[in-house]
Structures are given as structure tokens and as C-alpha cells.
Specification:
40% of the residues lie in helices and 20% in strands. The chain is of the alpha/beta class.
Length: 226
């Protein structure tokens, strides 16, 4: 196992490095977020022990970058904050585990080895269609780089359309997947949501209505003059 320790407290960082090496775990150290990103870019790490509050690039950004660009690397986040919402925030950024300072070194080792036993992480899929980009894990959607402020239903409908990759998605499927079992089968909710989604996406329109069948995404036709 090869681990990167990202910690700005020099004594703690060096103590962790020495302890990890004593446990036959190869360990490198970075003292700020910028150095961490540089090391991650050129070295093949199995895990990163990441202090959340570090100078340079913040630990949250380092964690999010790892989750997006190196999903197979496990992240054990360290923080002095033990509040539930701080822990939830860390997991939402892509952390695999969380340890509150002060902590016992033995617990750190146990958690790292538990992470190492997990099967390789699957790459979290980012869906793309034409100039649309949707990240289901982060609940973010963009069109031509522009952030799309979507409601939960709009996001769910757009995700279904993008997963279909141009295939037709029926109104029944939309009701089943984006609403719930109690939804009225005769409701106009899918049609209304589709209308508002079109407005948020803007021009040129990417959503096509297939008469009697449902909806699908279609790339805009290129003009002959372009």
C-alpha cells in the first residue's frame, strides 16, 4: 500500500509518515494542497490521508479533485471538526472515511487497511450528450460550461433522458422513475416539468417530443453554412 499524508502540522505529518512506514506502508508527505495535487498527479497512490483544513488549495478541493479524476484512490479525511454536518460534507465531497482529531494511530491503521480491502472503486459516471454534462454523484449539470440550476424533478428527468442516450423515454417511465408509486397516471406533471426543463436548458432545444411515445434527446442540427 502506498499512502500520501497531506498535513500542514509538520510534527504530526512526519510522525504519521514514520508510523506508517513502521507498519510496512509506503508513505509520502505533502504539507499543503498544492503540493498534494502535484504529487497525486505523478504518483500512483492507493490512499490519501487528507487533513481538511490545509494551506494552499483547500482540502475540500483536493478531495473533490481526487473523487473526480482519481476515483480509485481512497480518501481518509482528517479534521478537528466532529460535527455531523462536517462529516456529511466530507463524504459528499467524495471521502471514503473520516477521522476526527485527536485520534489514535492504531485506529488510523485499521481504517486504512479496511479501505485497502474494498474492491476497486468504479468510476463514477458523468453523463454527456451534445454540450450537456451531468454528474449524478455531485448533482450538478452544465450546458456548454454554464451551470444549470435545476429542481430535483428537472434533474431526475434530465438524468433519465441522458441515460437513454437519444432513446425514447415514455411518460410512464418518467412517472415511475422520477416521481413515485402514488403519482396519478393521468397527471400532467411530466409534461409540465419537461416544459420548464426546456426553458432552463435554453436554445437550441435538445428535447424532442415523440408523438404517442415520449421524449428523447437529439443533438441540434448543424447549419450548412457552418
Amino acid at each position: 500500500m502506498r499512502v500520501l499524508v497531506v498535513e500542514d502540522e509538520v510534527f504530526l505529518a512526519e510522525a504519521l509518515q514514520a508510523g506508517l512506514r513502521h507498519e510496512a506502508i509506503a508513505a509520502d508527505v505533502a504539507f499543503d494542497g498544492d503540493e498534494a495535487l502535484e504529487r497525486i498527479a505523478v504518483n500512483d497512490y492507493d490512499a490519501v490521508v487528507l487533513d481538511r483544513d490545509i494551506p494552499g488549495t483547500h482540502g475540500d478541493i483536493v478531495c473533490a479533485t481526487l473523487s473526480r479524476e482519481h476515483p480509485a484512490v481512497r480518501v481518509l479525511m482528517l479534521t478537528a471538526a466532529g460535527r455531523l454536518r462536517d462529516k456529511v460534507g466530507g463524504f459528499e465531497l467524495g471521502a471514503d472515511d473520516y477521522l476526527t482529531k485527536p485520534f489514535a494511530f492504531e485506529e488510523l491503521i485499521v481504517r486504512l487497511r479496511a479501505l485497502a480491502r474494498r474492491p476497486p472503486a468504479a468510476v463514477r459516471p458523468v453523463l454527456e450528450f451534445a454540450d450537456l454534462r451531468l454528474d449524478p454523484y455531485r448533482r450538478e449539470a452544465y450546458r456548454a460550461g454554464r451551470y444549470l440550476k435545476l429542481t430535483r424533478k428537472q434533474f431526475a428527468v434530465l438524468e433519465l433522458l441522458m441515460r437513454a442516450a437519444g432513446g425514447v423515454v415514455s411518460a410512464e417511465t418518467l412517472l415511475e422513475k422520477a416521481w413515485d408509486e402514488n403519482a396519478d397516471p393521468f397527471t400532467s406533471a411530466p409534461r409540465v416539468t419537461m416544459s420548464t426543463l426546456r426553458k432552463v436548458l435554453g436554445e437550441p432545444d435538445l428535447i424532442r417530443t415523440v408523438s404517442g411515445a415520449g421524449y428523447r434527446l437529439a443533438a441540434p442540427e448543424k447549419s450548412h453554412g457552418s
